[in-house]
Amino acid sequence: MKLVNRVKELRTAAGMTQKNLADMIGVTVPAVCLWESGARNPELENIFRMTLIFGVTVEDIVQRTESA
Predict the structure, then answer these.
(1) How far apart are CA 31 and CA 42, in angstroms?
(2) DSSP string covering 41-61, please?
(3) How far apart are CA 50 and CA 37, in angstroms?
(4) Phi, psi of 42 (to 5 degrees)
(5) Contact predicate 10/50, CB 8 Å
(6) CA-to-CA separations, 40 to 7, 36, 37, 55, 63, in angstroms, rounded
């Protein structure tokens, strides 16, 4: 299984820039870029912060899918 994150989708739906989100979470813009590109998954603490920012559940941010 692999994790697919929906950070970009949630961020753009909220009308936020990568910098806005990075500032709210306390990470760098390149970190957000890596999450959105799928090159790296956010740490659990940052996922929890995003649940508060976006008003969603962990499952809404991270979904499990079968790996190809």
Answers:
(1) 8
(2) PPPHHHHHHHHHHHT--HHHH
(3) 17
(4) -65, 150
(5) yes
(6) 12, 8, 8, 22, 14
Residue 10: CA atoms inside 13 Å, Cβ hemisphere, count? 22
Query: pTM of the predicted model, to two decimals?
Result: 0.85
Low-confidence ranges of the chain (pLDDT < 70): 1-4, 64-68
Q: What does the block give as tokens for 47? A: 């996922």
Question: What is the rounded distance in angstroms from the CA atom of residue 28 to the CA atom of residue 26?
Answer: 7
**Residue 31 identity (one-letter amino acid):** A
Q: What is the dihedral of CA 48, 43, 32, 27, to 10 degrees?
A: 80
